[in-house]
Amino acid sequence: MANSTIEIFRNNLKYYRNKKDFTQDKLSEITGISSDYLSEIERGKKTPSFKRMLLIANALDIEVYKLFKPIS
Using one digit for the tens of pLDDT, what is the confidence trace for 5-30? Predict the structure, then answer.
């Protein structure tokens, strides 16, 4: 079964965060988004607003669409 868009987003957030060698705390410092909230996003408990998605993408130095594109 194909991943849903939000599952792809969650997996890609974790992938790109780890690729940058950022902890959730480090990403929190850069974005101003609490590390608890980032953890809830990665666990599927919360869905971020588009504004927060942009903050995350900018901090990870990627274009926001990459958070939604399945990684091959």
Answer: 989 999 999 999 999 999 999 999 99
Residue 45 tokens, joined? 């408990």
Query: What is the reported pTM?
Result: 0.90
Burial label for 27, CB within 10 Å (0-12, 13-18, 19+), is: buried
Return phi, psi of residue 15, to 5°: -60, -55
State how far the Cα of 21 lies from the Cα of 32, in Å rounded to an integer: 18
Pick the CATH number of 5-64 from 1.10.260.40, 1.10.760.10, 3.40.1440.60, 3.30.470.20: 1.10.260.40
Residue 3 phi, psi (nearest 5): -70, 145
Tokens of 26: 């480090």
